[in-house]
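Onboarding guide, step 5: your first structure request.
Type a short instruction followed by the sequence, for example:

Predict the 3D structure of this protein.
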Amino acid sequence: MAEEILLTQEGYEKLKSELDNLINVKRREIAKRIKAAREYGDINENSEYDDAKNEQAFIEGRIKEIQIMLRNARIVKDDEITGKTVSLGTVVELCELATGERFSYTIVGSAEADPLNFKISNESPIGKAILGRKKGDKVKVKVPSGIMEYEILSIEKSKKE
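The system replies with structure tokens like these:
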């Protein structure tokens, strides 16, 4: 049995949009590239053909991956997000106790994680440590460089983009 994939509504919609683009746009583009590359002649030594076939394989793999995620998705409902405890769909402000540095993260499902945009997975070390916690709680997180300690400064519902 496949594992349940937790997603916010926004994350679910983004995956559906990506899937639609891959199926209805990218597939056609790749088919045209393959057809054009075949017209160059011998496909055994045709790098354009090889590149197009590799991209086609990647796109087909991504399509299957997204279809599985959507099939096994459980969307976290808005009324499940209270802002009183850390959960998917909340924005959490943390303070690293050793340095006083503050961070603000949106907690999302693993399929939506984007650390460069401060969206961390509920399955990441920090995400796991703070899930279900409340404002004022202190948590210790094991990271590659050792143990970090954070205090949860605030929790609020994520605003829709």
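Each response can be followed by summary notes, for example: Helices lie at 9-38, 47-71, 125-130.
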